[in-house]
Design brief:
This protein has 15 helices and 33 strands. The chain has 710 residues and is of the alpha+beta class.
Length: 710
């Protein structure tokens, strides 16, 4: 029945979307599409479904119309603490989101699916009003409870929610001031009233260890514990590879290979080998855990992994996509253990071109588990303390470094954009308190693995593109012209220029080269990143702009990413010759939804990871009030000046604290100018600041400027 319903739904939706469609009644659609009397109820159900989800609107007389015909559009609302917000349209037709002033939000809150009407245009920016809330995407809100006489209120942790939430005395669940709670909205905000909620969970007191991170986990609705049925299901998954499982697999157990990961990594899903051939070419083997052998399609484990979409790496814990029995056990390529894998073995010439490849189901046995630190030491230190222990592996490591240089140079020549990373490594003590924060360091070992994984992902994507089978690609589309124009204007004020075509990544590559070792380097890197589109998963191959790659996918991390697991299933069935016509039809129909879901869960994980880092950074600074720091101005807005410290921590100097003069905000040149002193504060400028406050409640850091000699 579901299949028939979906088939009819697509047929009716296609009819309504036709360019020649004119608004009509449901009975007219039934007649034109020759829908029999016995199926009329299904037609009405479909119309109701479309109307409920904002795909269509009904006139007062009941005629069916597309919202766009009445200047109405559906999308996702992004709120702001100051009351206004933006709507990102579902149809992606606007480069800029639709601005919604506070007076036109009409009860919508952050992440709601809404219908809005465009009311005016100001240059390239459209302004509108919310006319309908289609769906509450934020089912629950996490915040801090504050008691008052006879009632209470919750201050949301998510600062995109503008209003505190009123809690009547009967709906407090016994919470007291300082409790972190989960709230369900029971009444929308009115013109002069706040939204009303009911507390459904008390997480703990704000000062209790671990409550801060659990609050963020609840805020992003991340699934944590595995259901009992999942543990019951994995009881039948073996802990060791059996002889029966080795049938029809290529045996690579005699090939010298290693895993190279961070010291604390436990889910090892990729191993590598390199050998220099007599013809001067290199044989690169990338061996990836065969997770699809254990996580079968449609199983309870598969459904749970799909909902999670990805493992989430928070500052104090990992929320895995798969239970530890798989992620740290039978699927992890632990040294000295037989493991099933899918491999991509490539012959690569001196120019970095893949001249041949073998994609196979295989069995491997990793020789040694290596860390980035040790491999980097072996390749960069003449007297490495690890030299004797890994003497037999050194020839392969040296060849890996040679091949890495070749692959990197190939990507550079074609225009791949190489961003400098400014991710923070946050060191916690045994109680979860941050004791140090420093930028992550990249080295030759991390670059070796990065280049080898990129090579395998490109090779797999190109191979399956030409097979014309349904597949999952990782796309990064060309940047939007308006955003690039804005970037050009901004960086020109800093003395940098984007030359050449903005539709070719080489232009951005050359821009970043201009910033090398300049104070503005990291700032420009961030600006470029913000001007580019976000990468996403799709069943259509659109290329990867940032990598300057025509074909790209994610094949190398099936333990922690569902898209990789989906790709492995397609590859395995194709290699086995069991990819049936029904399988292909299923993939063609479902991959759009699967890839969209995977992109959503990826964004959710990234936001949660950023929020936990931000919280721990504020907590780290909270006992340093009054101390002075050197930094660089990373942003200038009408409400304040953002300053970034060398350890990546960012705070703001509020305009009200620029008290040595009256400062004028020059939006065109992105600076503040002192009216009397003519002192300037502009992006990229080195400054000295004093920490005035660091609030874990609001997750904000406030600085004030001080003279350099202070």
């Amino acid at each position: 029945m579901d299949e028939l319903y979906n088939e009819r739904y697509e047929k009716i939706w296609g009819f309504i979307n036709d360019e020649h469609y004119e608004p009509m009644f449901a009975k007219d659609i039934a007649m034109l599409l020759d829908i029999k009397s016995g199926d009329i109820q299904m037609l009405y159900d479909i119309i109701d479904d479309m109307e409920k989800n904002g795909k269509i609107i009904l006139t007062k007389k009941g005629k069916i119309m597309l919202p766009s015909s009445q200047n109405l559009y559906t999308g996702t609302f992004t709120g702001n603490a100051r009351g206004f917000g933006f709507v990102t349209r579902d149809d992606n037709q606007f480069a800029e989101d639709i601005f919604i002033p506070a007076s036109a939000v009409n009860g919508a809150i952050h992440r709601d699916k809404v219908m809005c009407r465009i009311t005016s245009h100001y240059g390239k920016r459209a302004e509108g009003e919310i006319v309908r809330i289609i769906e509450r995407n934020m089912k629950h809100i996490v915040g801090t409870f504050e008691e008052s006489k006879g009632f209470g209120f919750v201050v949301p942790d998510d600062k995109k929610l503008a209003d505190d939430i009123f809690i009547s005395k009967t709906n407090t669940m016994g919470a007291v001031s300082g409790h972190k709670v989960v709230v369900q909205i029971i009444k929308n905000a009115g013109e002069n009233t706040k939204p009303e909620g009911r507390i459904v969970e008390i997480i703990g007191h704000i000062n209790d260890p671990g409550v801060d991170i659990v609050s963020i986990i609840r805020q992003f609705e991340l699934p944590m514990d595995f259901d009992e049925k999942i543990y019951a299901y994995i009881e039948n998954i073996p802990s060791e590879v059996s002889e029966d499982e080795l049938k029809n697999r290529t045996d690579y157990r005699s090939v010298q290979m290693v895993t190279i990961d961070g010291e604390d990594a436990k889910d090892l899903d990729d191993a590598v080998s390199v050998e220099k051939l007599e013809n001067g070419n290199y044989r690169l083997g990338v061996y990836i855990a065969d997770v699809s052998h254990y996580v079968t399609q449609g199983s309870p484990l598969d459904k749970d992994a799909y909902e999670r979409g990805t493992s989430v790496y928070l500052v104090d814990r990992v929320i895995p996509m798969l239970p530890h029995k798989l992620s740290n056990g039978i699927c992890s390529l632990n040294a000295g253990c037989d493991r099933l894998c899918l491999c991509c073995v490539m012959e690569i010439d001196k120019d970095g071109a893949v001249v041949s490849q073998k994609i196979e189901q295989a069995v491997i046995n990793v020789d040694r588990r290596m860390s980035y630190t040790v491999v980097n030491s072996l390749l960069t230190e003449e007297s490495s303390p690890y030299a004797d222990e890994y003497k037999e592996l050194m020839p392969m490591f040296l060849q890996m470094a040679e091949l890495r240089d070749i692959l990197f140079e190939k990507r550079r020549k074609r225009g791949a954009i190489e961003f400098e990373s400014r991710e923070a490594k946050i060191i916690l003590d045994e109680n979860g308190k941050p004791v140090d924060i420093k930028p992550y360091e990249r080295n030759i070992a991390t670059s070796i693995i990065e280049e080898f994984m990129l090579a395998a992902n490109e090779c797999i994507a190109e191979y399956y593109f030409w097979l014309e089978l349904p597949f999952v690609y990782r796309n990064h589309e060309e940047p939007d012209g308006e955003k690039v124009d804005k970037l050009r204007e901004t960086i020109a004020k800093l003395g940098f220029y984007l030359k050449g075509s903005a539709t070719h990544p080489k232009s951005f590559q050359k821009l970043l080269a201009q910033t090398k070792d300049k104070p503005e380097e990291m700032l420009i890197h961030r600006m470029v990143l913000r001007s580019l589109k976000q990468a996403r998963y799709s069943p259509s191959n659109l290329g990867h702009f940032g990598l300057a790659a025509k074909y790209y996918c994610h094949f190398t991390s099936p333990i922690r990413r569902y898209p990789d697991l989906q790709i492995h299933r397609i590859i395995s069935k194709n290699l086995e010759g069991t990819l049936s016509e029904n399988d292909i039809a299923y993939l063609q129909k479902n991959l759009p939804e699967i890839t969209s879901h995977c992109s959503m869960t990826e964004r959710r994980a990234e936001e949660a990871e950023r929020e936990t880092d931000k919280y721990k950074m504020v907590e780290y600074m909270s006992d340093k009030v009054g101390q002075c720091f050197d930094g660089i101005i990373s942003g200038v807005t009408s409400w304040g000046i953002y300053v970034e410290l060398p350890n990546t921590i960012e705070g703001m100097v509020a305009v009200k604290n620029l008290n040595d003069d009256y400062y004028i905000f020059d939006e065109d040149n992105m600076l503040f100018l002192g009216e009397r002193t003519h002192k300037e504060y502009k992006i990229g400028q080195a400054v000295r600041v004093k920490l005035e406050s660091a609030s874990t409640m609001t997750r904000t850091i406030d600085f004030i400027f001080v003279d350099t000699e202070d």
